[in-house]
Amino acid sequence: MKKTKIVATIGPSSSSKETLKKMIEAGLNVCRINFSHGAHEDHKAVIDIIREINDELGTNVALLADLQGPKIRIGEVEDNGVLIEDGSELIFTTEKCMGTNKKVYLSYETFPQDVKVGDILLVDDGRFQLKVKSTDGKKEVVTIVEHGGILSSKKGVNLPNTAISLPSLTEKDRKDLEFALSLDIDWIGLSFVRSAQDIKELKKIIKAKKKHAKVIAKIEKPEAVWDIEDIIAETDGVMIARGDLGVEVPMEKVPNLQKKIIKLCRLHAKPTIVATQMMESMIKNFRPTRAEVNDVANAVMDGADAVMLSGETSIGDHPVDVIKAMVKIVLEVEANPEIYEKEELPEKNQERFITDSICFNAARMAKRVDAAGIITMTFSGYTAYKISSQRPKATTYVFTENRQILTQLNLVWGVIGFFYDQMESTDQTIKDCKAYLFEKDYLKKGDLVLNIASIPMEERGQSNMMKLSEV
Q1: Is 143 known to be catalytic?
Q2: Residue 81, Cα to own-chain centre: how many angstroms?
Q3: Which of 96, 215, 394, 404 could crosslink 366 through cysteines, CB 3.0-4.6 Å?
Q4: pLDDT digits (tens, 9 = 90+) for 115-162
Q5: Which CATH class is domain 353-470?
Q6: Is 172 tagged catalytic?
Q7: Catalytic residue, candidates 73, 259, 263, 324
Q8: What CATH number does the domain located at 72-158 have?
């Protein structure tokens, strides 16, 4: 069984029940619902299908609702595209118009007030580069085209030098968020995070709705990189969204940023997703390029909890085959012993020191005795995150009566969750869990396992007990 999880974006290529079932059977763990595209009724139909499949297969595939955020785009352009020549002037206006090679509409109302002379505009993932020549401070900004080409409609715009004043949650995002929360989605992806305050505001809304969705901070702005430690402390998980990140910051910085963010997240026991262009050639091709194979492998070696597919599964020709290919790469890398046992001593004199110490020592003992599994009973899921962050070679089996966390934990490295609500006594629960895992072929006779629990169990307190036993 692979420990690194796979996230896949669901779209026209993958929204049928037959295809989704094959993807889940192939190794898909988290379905990403991209709110940049599609209507609510379409998303609900897909969510219902995924939950049907979970019931049929006994799986816990998670749902990630990815909010669009303040994505800046140009408007419609005439003739399906116009030639923007190097050295020419191009005006960006906040008044809607049909775009030409002289003027285009930009969906950013305060752009003329926020931008300054010399700022850079990158359009269509950096394929076009323009520099601000002047702004009237009201409606129009004049730019000089430094790298041009054929510009078509609705392309995204990145402003790496501009402090944008758009809110992190747009009006569209708030409607999408309300819809996602009404369906009890597991994870909410917040796009274009700039500071820890953005995360706090989203969590405040979730709490006010009395929902339990966890937050994924998408790192794709330079401001987020500057505030990364505070963002990681506040969020529940992180997505390294390398598409926009690689345009907003110099592209050569992305590999080191990826490694740094993954390490920081693991230290804080927060799951990380590495996303964008991982196996993009498989949108059309049956096999990935060798560079893509290495990219996925390196993300696993870096310690990512999950690797993500976007267009490959949403609009690609081979949504099931790309999952199978990714699983092969992940399993091959996970055969390397160097990716395991990342021991991190727990901090003393902090609120969860006892639980953290139990988790740390469980992972350490699992290594010493070559345990087949670490079994934990939990209600909040905290022990699962902490054990996972130590990257034990032993699989982490989580038993809980809290159905909400079962699917959430499907994003977390090395964790498999099961529903269990018969917690009569610690000894009986340990016996039941071992018997279940043996019966389902997760464990075999003679395997050593570590059990973590809270005593007394009925109080649902912090984990304070560890037991080593044989199956």
Answers
A1: no
A2: 33
A3: 394
A4: 999 999 999 989 999 999 999 999 999 999 999 999 999 999 999 988
A5: alpha beta
A6: no
A7: 73
A8: 2.40.33.10
